[in-house]
Structures are given as C-alpha cells and as structure tokens.
Design a protein that fits this description.
Rossmann fold, single chain, 19% strand, seven-stranded mixed beta sheet
C-alpha cells in the first residue's frame, strides 16, 4: 500500500542503537525524509489522531504572535507549523527545511489555503546555517525537528542569532511521559505498534519508523533541552507538557 518510492535501508539495527551517534546522521536523516515525504502527513494524522495539529496551535499561542512579527519555521517539513503561524496573521512567515522533497508538498498545502492566509515563503536551507540576517526574526518555531539535527545546540544558537530582542523560540518535541502507567502504554504503542503500521502505510524501506521511537528515547531529556536553550542565550525557558507529556512545547525568550 506504500505511497512513497522504495528506497534502500537508511537505518539498520546497529545504527538504531543510538541514531544520534551516527557520523553521517545528517545525510541519513535527509534520505529518510525524502523517502517518506509523500506519506508523512497521513502517518502524522493517523498516529496522533490529529492531535499533532492541536499541538502546533498551542505552540503558536505560546509564541504570542503579533501582526508586526516576522516568523521563521525551522525544519518546516510539509508546512503544518508554517501554516499554523500564518493563520495567526503575522507580518510574514518563512519556512526552512533541508529536505527538498518536503517543500513541494508544503507549497501545495499553502496554495490550497492562499485565500485564508498570507503566503509563507519556503526555503531549502539548513538549521545550522540559516540564510537570514542577525536579529531579523521575532519568532522561531521548530516542530519535531530538533532531535533530527546533527548539532541541536548549534541549531539553537542559530535560532538565537536571528531573533531580535524580545523574540521567542518555541520547540515542539516528543517526550517520555512521567506517569509510569501512561509511559508503559505509550512505549507499547510508540515502539511496537506505530513502527509496523506506519511502515505498512508508507511502504517505507528506509527504517524511518523504527528510527522515530529510537531517536526520541535516545535524545536529550527535558532538563537537557532546557539547559541547551539557556546555553544558547534564551531566558525564562519553560516546558509545557502536552497530552500527558507525550509531547512538550518548550519556550524561551530573548532579553528585550
């Protein structure tokens, strides 16, 4: 039933022990997302029961978007967060992703809503070297992308670089629920059910949906993410757990 094109395995068992330690993680992540781009939205919706869209709306609310704001969606993928930001009516939205195959899908979704939102601009670029000037943005968002970046701390410093005084950073990322019962149910679903059903739906051969739970469980925990944000220069950093802690929205500010 696969919607995506068959591709060679990107993540084998040895690499999945800790995918963040792969020396060529950047290339592997790019190949993986290129392989699943066409089925990415369908799997997101089905496997979160459309909750992923609610999480994005919460992130936009926490960012406090104003009509004069310039907003940047880093690792924008198929454009869901960029569209959610655009619905808040800022001055402009720029979506940036280093997997080109995601961007035509984002553009088609944006074009389908062009009567309702200002037109976000899409750029094929790297979170570690954003093609934007210092202090040129008021809000930066990263939805489910920070753990896929080779150097997340460096990406946070880049976000800080492009933000003006008073700017806000919001990050959405999966997390392990703190409640033991919820975590047990979550792990069964996330580690055993989702990889099988998502792989079947997408026809994926890259190992993307085995990478997903491993990339979450081996990534930095909440305190480490908050520490990285502080080290990058953000203040008043806070975590906002969502859906029993399955997802967390992190927010940080640039000193006015």
């Amino acid at each position: 039933m696969g919607a995506g094109k068959p591709t060679a395995t990107v993540w084998d068992e040895s690499l999945l022990a800790n995918p963040h330690a792969a020396v060529d993680k950047r290339t592997r992540v790019q190949r993986m997302f290129a392989a699943i781009a066409s089925s990415y939205d369908l799997n997101n919706r089905l496997h979160t029961l459309w909750t992923d869209q609610r999480w994005r709306r919460i992130a936009v609310d926490l960012a406090g978007v104003r009509p004069t704001d310039a907003v940047v969606d880093v690792a924008c993928g198929t454009g869901d967060l960029a569209i959610a930001f655009a619905k808040a009516n800022p001055r402009c939205v720029i979506g940036i992703d280093f997997t080109y195959e995601m961007l035509p899908i984002a553009r088609a979704k944006i074009d389908s809503q062009k009567s309702k939102i200002k037109n976000p601009h899409l750029v094929n670029g790297d979170a570690l070297s954003l093609p934007l000037a210092d202090g040129s943005a008021d809000v930066v968002g990263i939805a489910f992308g920070i753990r896929n970046i080779t150097e997340p701390a460096a990406a946070l410093r880049e976000a800080r670089r492009i933000l003006r005084p008073g700017g806000r950073l919001v990050i959405l990322e999966f997390s392990l629920p703190s409640n033991r019962l919820v975590r047990w149910v979550y792990n069964i679903y996330f580690r055993h059910i989702l990889p099988r059903t998502a792989t079947w739906i997408s026809g994926d051969r890259s190992g993307a949906y085995r990478y997903l739970p491993q990339s979450v469980s081996t990534f930095s925990d909440r305190q480490e993410i908050l520490r990285m944000m502080r080290d990058a220069g953000f203040e008043a950093v806070e975590p906002f757990p969502l859906s029993f802690g399955v997802c967390v929205c992190y927010r940080g500010w640039v000193r006015p």
